[in-house]
Amino acid sequence: LFQVFDKQVPENESFDEVLPLLKDAMMAKVARRMKRSDINTLDDAVRLLRESKNIIVLTGAGVSVSCGIPDFRSKNGIYSRLDEFELEDPQEMFDLHYFRARPQTFYSFAKEIYPSNFKPSPSHDFIRLLEQKGKLLRNYTQNIDTLEQTAGIERIIQCHGSFATATCIECGYHVPGKEIEKDIMDQVNYWMVFPLSSNVSICR
């Protein structure tokens, strides 16, 4: 990749040291998307929305912050609370190997951001309005909070999964997320609870 971008390949460097250099090399060559010269004001944006169809909306943690759900990388975000969650690396929160060893860490986080604790934001309502007007092609979100569904958005792709469903990592037993909500709120520290009427063995 360094050769592609006409940059000298660093020697004896760790991955963490090389990554910023590679980013700089890419940014030096890859042109930024050109701004449309006819879109400069809020009125221009409103006009564009009125005229457009097949609008794609990309959303991340910021769209739910006003609902009370913390984001990840801001000053008071999840990643700033490593000591509280007893994590050495914030990525461990979503690492399957770490989850197998310490499921309570994820469950404590899940309780804090569980969808039933929150209501959709005006941003969610606006995306729903786009859908009602027949303008929304798709809402792609990184969020797992399912506030899009709560707002009534149907044309949604949750890129990182969501609380809408839960699957046992041992046997693949699949349930609606609502069925394990009480276990999350009660901080039950095992991977999945099966109904006693189920033929599947209980996984703990």
Automatic annotation (TrEMBL):
<feature type="domain" description="Deacetylase sirtuin-type">
    <location>
        <begin position="35"/>
        <end position="204"/>
    </location>
</feature>
<protein>
    <submittedName>
        <fullName>DHS-like NAD/FAD-binding domain-containing protein</fullName>
    </submittedName>
</protein>
<dbReference type="GO" id="GO:0046970">
    <property type="term" value="F:histone H4K16 deacetylase activity, NAD-dependent"/>
</dbReference>
<dbReference type="Pfam" id="PF02146">
    <property type="entry name" value="SIR2"/>
</dbReference>
<keyword id="KW-0520">NAD</keyword>
<dbReference type="GO" id="GO:0070403">
    <property type="term" value="F:NAD+ binding"/>
</dbReference>
<dbReference type="GO" id="GO:0046872">
    <property type="term" value="F:metal ion binding"/>
</dbReference>
<keyword id="KW-0479">Metal-binding</keyword>
<dbReference type="InterPro" id="IPR026590">
    <property type="entry name" value="Ssirtuin_cat_dom"/>
</dbReference>
<keyword id="KW-0808">Transferase</keyword>
<dbReference type="InterPro" id="IPR003000">
    <property type="entry name" value="Sirtuin"/>
</dbReference>
<keyword id="KW-0862">Zinc</keyword>
<dbReference type="GO" id="GO:0005634">
    <property type="term" value="C:nucleus"/>
</dbReference>
<dbReference type="InterPro" id="IPR029035">
    <property type="entry name" value="DHS-like_NAD/FAD-binding_dom"/>
</dbReference>
<dbReference type="InterPro" id="IPR050134">
    <property type="entry name" value="NAD-dep_sirtuin_deacylases"/>
</dbReference>
<dbReference type="InterPro" id="IPR026591">
    <property type="entry name" value="Sirtuin_cat_small_dom_sf"/>
</dbReference>
<comment type="similarity">
    <text>Belongs to the sirtuin family. Class I subfamily.</text>
</comment>
